[in-house]
Amino acid sequence: MAISSALPSPLLLAASLLLLIVQAQGITRHYEFNVQMANATRLCNTKSMVTVNGQCPGPELVAREGDRVVIRVTNNVAHNISLHWHGVRQVRTGWADGPAYITQCPIQTGQSYVYNFTVAGQRGTLWWHAHISWLRATVYGALVILPKLGVPYPFPAPHKEVPVIFGEWWNADTEEVVNQAVQTGGGPNVSDAFTINGLPGPLYNCSAQDTFKLKVKPGKTYMLRLINAALNEELFFAVANHTLTVVEVDAVYVKPFTVDTLVISPGQTTNVLLTAKPYYPGANFYMSAAPYSTARPGTFGNTTVAGILEYENPAMSPSAASFVKGLPLFKPTLPQLNDTDFVTNFTDKLRSLATPEYPAAVPQSVDKRFFFTVGLGTLPCPANMTCQGPNNTQMAASMNNVSFVLPARALLQSHFTGLSSGVYAPDFPVAPLSPFNYTGTPPNNTNVKTGTKLLVLRYNTSVELVMQDTSILGIESHPLHLHGFNFFVIGQGFGNYDAVNDPAKFNLVDPVERNTVGVPAGGWVAIRFLADNPGVWFMHCHLEAHTTWGLRMAWLVLDGSHPNQKLLPPPSDLPKC
C-alpha cells in the first residue's frame, strides 16, 4: 500500500525526533589521550619531548554545542601532568578544569584520570593544553565546538575550516629552561623559533622542509581558527596581499570587521575569514607571525614564523606538485614589535554581536568592585646564593603585590572537604594595600609578598574588576585568563585608572566577551562577569614566565541555595597528591 505523500513516514518522524533529541541533549564523545615521550626534529635538532599520542600539536577535539566530552588521560611519562580545556565554562564541573594544585592534584606517572564535562551554551574555537610547569610547550591542541545541528554561523559558511596554531620551539628541554630560571632568579632563556601547527617554516635555519602550507582554490572563503599556544609571546599575524575578516574571538561571535593584520595573545583564539583571490594569481604568499612586546630586548624571542598560502592552478592537475618554486613569493609587512597603538586600535574594534540570538548579557549593576595591580617585582636573594634578577634579586610577579604560591594540596578539594587550614587563606586583597603612582616612577622597594590567597564570592555576585599594569621593572602587556567564566571587556585605557571619570566611558551595550584579555602596557582594563559557577577558579597571566613568577590568584565561588547551583561531588578517580 502506498503511503500518502501528505503524511510523513514513521521513519522520517523517528529521524526528526532523534535529531531534536540530539539537538537538545547532544551526544557523548570519547577520546583517549596517552601522554608519552616522542622524538621530534626541528632546526636540525632532535629531542625527546612530552606529547599526547605522539603528536605535537596534539589531537584536535571536535564536539558540538551541548555534547558531553569524555577524555581518558593516561600518563606514561616521568613528569606529573594535568590538562586544561581552555575556555570551557565547566559549569559545576570544576574537577575537570585541569590546573594542577588548583582544581586537581596532577596525574602521576602510570596513572589515569577521566576528564568529563558538557559543553553548554558555547560554540567556536577553544583549545586544550597541559597546565603544570611549562609542559604546555609541547602538550596542546585545538578544541573545536561546532554549532548545534542545523544552526548556521551568523556569517556566510566557509568552503573549509583550518586550525592554525602558533607555538614555540626550544632546542632545549623546556623543563630544564624553567628550572634554571627559578634556580638563578633570572629570566628564562627565550625560544629558538615560533611554529605554525608545529612547523617553524622557511625563515629559520634548516626548516624549509618543515613549513605549514595552506592550499586554496580561487574565489573560495576559508575560516582560519587561530590559536596562540605560544608560551611567552603575543603575536601579530598577517597574510601577504590578503585581508582577514574577524568573526569570533575566544569562542564568542563578534561584529565582523576586516583587517590586514591582527594581534593575538597567548591563550586567545580568533576566527577569521580569508577569501582567496577570484583568479589564479601566479604567486605564493607568506602567512607570517612575529612578536608584540614592550619588554626589554633579550627577554623575548624576536623572530618571525611563516607558513605559505598557495593557490591551486586550474591549468594543472590537482595531483601535480603543490608548491611551484619559480613563483613570486610575497611577504606581509607586520607592525613594529612595540606598536602598542596598533594593538589598541585592533582591540577597540572588537564588539559582541549583541543580537537576540547572541545577546551580550553584560551585568548592568555591580555587587562587588575590585582593583588589582598586575606586574613584575622582586624577591630577596636567598642567603649564600647569587641571583640574576635586578640588583642581585630574584625575579617575581604579583597581583596586588601577592605573588601566588601553589599549594601542596589542590585548592578545590581542600575547599570541598572543608580541610582548607594550612592550604590557603581566604583573604586576597580587594585593592592594593599600599597605593602608589602605578605607571609613574616606580617605588624604590620592588619586593613582593608571597602567599596562597583566594578571593571569596557569594554565588551570583556580579563583579567588576579593574586590572592595572605597573611600571615596576618596565611596563608590559599581560594577557590575563580567567578559568570557569567568560567576561565582558567594558573599558581600557592608559596611565592610572581614574575611578571617578573612566567609568563614564564604559561600554555596557556590546562589549567583547572573552576568557583572556590583555592588560595594556602602562594602562588598565575593566571587565565584568557574573559569578554563577561554584568552585575554585584560577586567574593568571598567560605569559608562562610571569605565571611561574607568581602572577596568578584564584577566586572561590560559593555554592548557591538550589541544587543546580552547587558544585558536583568529585569523581572517584580524582588524582591524589
Automatic annotation (TrEMBL):
Keywords: Apoplast, Copper, Lignin degradation, Metal-binding, Oxidoreductase, Repeat, Secreted, Signal. Its main location: secreted. Gene3D superfamilies: Cupredoxins - blue copper proteins. Residues 1-26 form the signal peptide. Its EC number is 1.10.3.2. It catalyses: 4 hydroquinone + O2 = 4 benzosemiquinone + 2 H2O. InterPro entries: Cu-oxidase-like_N (IPR011707), Cu-oxidase_2nd (IPR001117), Cu-oxidase_C (IPR011706), Cu-oxidase_fam (IPR045087), Cu_oxidase_CS (IPR033138), Cu_oxidase_Cu_BS (IPR002355), Cupredoxin (IPR008972), CuRO_1_LCC (IPR034288). Residues 34-148, 161-313, 435-559 form the Plastocyanin-like domain. The keyword Metal-binding applies. It is found in: Secreted, Extracellular space, Apoplast. It is an enzyme of class 1 (oxidoreductase). Its cofactor is Cu cation. The keyword Secreted applies. One of its GO terms (molecular function) is hydroquinone:oxygen oxidoreductase activity. Binds 4 Cu cations per monomer. GO terms for cellular component: apoplast. One of its GO terms (biological process) is lignin catabolic process. Belongs to the multicopper oxidase family. Lignin degradation and detoxification of lignin-derived products. This is Laccase.
